[in-house]
Write a structure and sequence with these properties.
nine-stranded mixed sheet, three-stranded antiparallel sheet
Length: about 450
């Protein structure tokens, strides 16, 4: 039997300072420059720059964001950026960064306002250059809450409804559609015991999300959410803003009465996301069969039900009717067929992917003790996720890399090693020829350089 050799035996030694690991991060730095993010951060955070200080607060924030985008989950992970000054320039020391975060935490509202303003400004510039949306006539904003665990007694961390311990932030994302990814727009850090159906929190997050959108897009918004968003106060707020909504509805008695009164012929065939008939699934509108007790909702609301056979192995629920699983949502959209409205609502499942990717980009763990500082960290994590998405939008809008998730991008693009070559007073980052995605990286650099 032959021995299987895992790899060539080599001797290991330190040296060759011109070698750069994670050189693909230079794409994100170039996006920050092309979008104007670097300049806006520098101008907005100038009030936190002490006299005679060496490091610019805007660059400190950008260095932290690059470290988070690379997979960092604490302040100390900025050492990845600091170790490569040939590519990223001088980076502040750990004590300097800690003091800077302490200064931001002393006035968190102002600090968060500056970061959010910079994010909105950069987003407008990116969207103006290349719109990431599948349909320019509708901007879909998804709202959802998620749990973030805490492994120590951090400020305002508390038990949650799943018997865990930590935080329960409310988030909003803009959906780019099936051919893209998405962007985090707003995240409100909340204690673990906060509920998912808090109308006040959802209104706060929605208003912050709308402020992040370029102004021409704010009147085209469709707000989408699960049953946690289907509360009267929040739906009225969306209605008063003149926006569309598609939110889940709890199966309370008026809805159950409408389902019982619904004639059998009212059920129509459901569709899958490709527009084909979905076997074992039906949709129907309940609006005209709702009893008078279903009151207090804004005018123009339509209530639509969907029923399907549970998937094999799915846990049965007490609300399942005669073997059918029924879900209900409400919308004020007119025009498309019931099946099309139902597909649009069901596509909010992509929001779960956006949350998972944000957690994979700095939001799995909130590393600081104070609540306000963790809210600032959550803003930085959103900015890191946005830098990744903006790079995909500007550099590879016509390539499958446009929909790669952060883990795949890190493995294929961000983690590539390179070497700094100095010749004729020029600094050149040389990438390995045999790296499978070198051409993709070069294409990205050329497109971003053209914008800058």
């Amino acid at each position: 039997m032959k021995n299987i050799v895992a790899g060539r035996r080599v001797h290991v030694a330190a040296g060759s300072e011109s070698l750069i690991s994670s050189s693909g991060l230079s794409l994100l730095a170039q996006t920050a420059s092309a979008s104007g993010l670097s300049d806006v951060l520098t101008a907005g955070l100038s009030r936190w720059r002490k006299p005679a200080s060496i490091h610019d607060p805007g660059k400190i924030v950008l260095d932290l964001v690059l470290a988070i985008a690379a997979g960092g989950d604490c302040l100390a992970d900025i050492s990845l950026i600091r170790a490569q000054p040939e590519l990223f320039g001088p980076v502040a020391s750990d004590p300097t960064i800690s003091r800077f975060i302490e200064a931001l935490g002393a006035d968190p509202v102002a600090a968060i306002d500056v970061i959010r303003s910079a994010r909105a400004s950069a987003r407008a510039k990116v969207w103006d250059h290349h719109s990431p949306l599948a349909d320019d006539d509708t901007v879909i904003v998804d709202l959802d809450a998620t749990l973030i665990g805490a492994h120590s007694e951090k400020e305002l961390a508390s038990p949650n409804y799943k018997r865990g311990f930590g935080f329960h932030p409310m988030m909003a994302f803009v959906d780019h559609g099936p051919g893209g990814t998405g962007e985090p727009l707003a995240a409100l850090l909340r204690t673990g015991k906060a509920t998912a159906n808090s109308a006040a929190d959802q209104i706060t997050v929605l208003d912050a999300a709308l402020a992040q959108l370029p102004e021409p897009s704010r009147s085209k918004v469709l707000v989408r959410g699960d049953s946690g968003a289907g509360v009267r106060e929040f739906v009225h707020h969306v209605h008063d803003l003149g926006l569309q909504y598609s939110v889940g509805v709890y199966g309370r008695q008026p809805v159950l009465d409408a389902l019982a009164a619904l004639p059998r012929q009212a059920w129509k065939k459901a569709l899958d996301t490709d527009g084909h008939r979905r076997e074992g699934a039906l949709v129907a509108e309940l609006t005209r069969w709702l009893p008078s007790t279903f009151a207090g909702w804004p005018p123009g609301m339509r209530v639509i039900a969907r029923k399907e056979r549970p998937h094999p192995g799915a846990q049965l629920r007490i609300t399942d009717d005669n073997g059918w699983r029924i879900t209900v949502f409400a919308t004020n959209t007119t025009g498309p067929t019931l099946a099309q409205l139902e597909v649009r609502h069901r596509s909010r499942a992509r929001c779960e992917d956006r949350i998972r990717n944000l957690k994979d980009t700095g939001a799995t763990n909130l590393p600081l003790h104070e609540f306000d500082k963790n809210q600032i960290w959550l803003e930085l994590a959103q900015l890191a996720a946005e830098l990744i998405t903006w790079t995909q939008t500007l550099a590879w809008h016509d390539n499958p890399a446009r929909i790669w998730e952060p883990k795949r991008l890190r493995l294929r693009i961000l983690a590539v090693a390179g070497r700094i070559i100095t010749t004729a007073r020029q600094h050149i980052l040389r990438l390995p020829k045999r790296w499978p995605w070198t051409d993709l990286i070069l294409t990205g650099h050329r497109r971003l350089a053209a914008i800058t």
